[in-house]
Each structure stands twice: as C-alpha cells, then as structure tokens.
Automatic annotation (TrEMBL):
The keyword S-adenosyl-L-methionine does not apply. Signal peptide: none annotated. One of its GO terms (cellular component) is membrane. It comes from the Eukaryota. This is Phosphatidylinositol 4-phosphate 5-kinase 5-like. Pfam families: MORN. Keywords: Repeat. PANTHER family: HISTONE H3 K4-SPECIFIC METHYLTRANSFERASE SET7_9 FAMILY PROTEIN, PHOSPHATIDYLINOSITOL-4-PHOSPHATE 5-KINASE RELATED. The gene is LOC120107611. SMART domains: MORN.
Length: 226
C-alpha cells in the first residue's frame, strides 16, 4: 500500500490493523480503507470513497453480508444497501432455491445488467429493472432452448433471434458485469483471509503480553517472600 496516508488513527498500529478503535488509510485517489477493531481483533476491513470524491462523502465500499436465511451477498454497497456490482447466492435447502445472481444493483435491487443462474439449470443474461427482466436479454433453458428479445416486467414482449445486435449487446454487457462482480467476491475472500491472519497475530500478542505480566508478578512475589 505505497503512498497511503494513515487517517483517523486511534490506538497503535499492529500488523494490518490497529490495537483498538478505528483507523483508515487514504490511498490518494479519493478511495481508502477503513479497519474496525472489536475487542482487540479486526472485525471488518472496508474500501470506502473518501469525502469530496464525487459521492458527496457518503460511505461506499465492498462488504460480505450473510442474511438470516443463510443467503450471502458479496459486493458493493452505498448507505447500507446493495448498490453497484455484487454477487448474491440464495441458500439451497428445502425452503430456498439456491439461485445465484452476479451483476449490477441499484438501491438494494437487481438493476442494470447481470446474469441470473437458476438452481433448475435455467439462466437469464441481460438487462434488469428493479428485480425484473426488463429490456434486452436472453433466457436459456437447461435443455438448450433459447428465448431472446425485449422483455417487459419479466415477460418476453418482442421476440428476437439470439444473434440480433441488440440482444447480443445486452448479453455482452451482462456477462461483463457478472465477471466484475465475481472478481469483487474473490477480492473479499482474500481480505477475509488477511483479517483472519491479523486476528491470529493479535491474539498471540495479547497472550504473550499476559504471560509476561504474570511472570513479572511471580518474580516479584518470589523476591518479596525470600
């Protein structure tokens, strides 16, 4: 992280994070990283847009959220809701279907371009509007049958050949958005590994400090009773 400037530092730096409180690092390009500590361990690391970056100072970043039903979202958010690129995996059991979506979000809803893989083997690649298929896209059944064209509120209104330029442009844009969303998920996985390593180092340091204090107390007690 060359060229980074530490900001908002509370406590002392140790490893990748801080011993207590919160801290951050300004990368100099209107983005930065915020590290939050909880009981001496790193609880989260988030990339944010710094104030004055064009986002009016609103917190933005990449985060992994696990829902109460076991579903998981990894991706960008703004003001606490899914916004930007993201990957969502619905829990797969007797209640949920195990579908997967990767692509664009807007205001906590699937919106823009993206790829939706259904657990039954079907797949839709194309444009979305507030959680519904809207605009151009291609729906492929698990048997290979394809339906392309312009969609409205989840229903195919104007059928087109999959080779139609409008359908192809939408498919390409959706695949690109999906690829970028998956890359974000992989980055989050690497960050989680770094957080786990930093937490292990922090715990080891605390244990060593406690042992050192205990040894000092034992030595003092020994010499006092000689």
């Amino acid at each position: 992280m060359e060229g980074m400037r530490v900001i908002g530092l509370m406590g002392s730096m140790m490893g990748m994070g801080w011993r207590a409180g919160q801290g951050g690092a300004d990368t100099g390009d209107n983005t930065g990283w915020v590290c939050v500590m909880d009981s001496g361990c790193i609880s989260s690391i988030m990339e944010i847009a710094m104030p004055g970056s064009g986002s009016a100072g609103r917190a933005m970043g990449v985060e992994c959220q696990t829902c109460s039903d076991g579903s998981c979202y990894v991706g960008e958010f703004m003001c606490g809701v899914k916004h930007g690129l993201g990957y969502y995996h619905f829990r797969s059991d007797e209640i949920s279907n195990g579908d997967e979506y990767s692509g664009e979000y807007f205001g906590d809803k699937i919106h823009g371009f993206g790829v939706y893989h259904f657990a039954n083997g079907h797949c839709y690649v194309g444009s979305w509007h507030e959680g519904r298929r809207q605009g151009f896209g291609t729906y492929t059944f698990r048997n290979g049958e394809m339906r392309s064209g312009e969609w409205d509120c989840g229903v195919l209104k104007i059928p087109l050949l999959p080779s139609d330029p409008a359908a192809q442009r939408a498919v390409q844009a959706a695949r690109k958005a999906a690829e970028n969303a998956v890359l974000l998920a992989r980055v989050d996985e690497q960050v989680n590994k770094a957080v786990a390593a930093a937490n292990r180092a922090a715990i080891a340091a605390r244990v060593a400090a406690v042992k050192a204090i205990q040894n000092q107390m034992d030595a003092k007690f020994y010499y006092t009773n000689m």
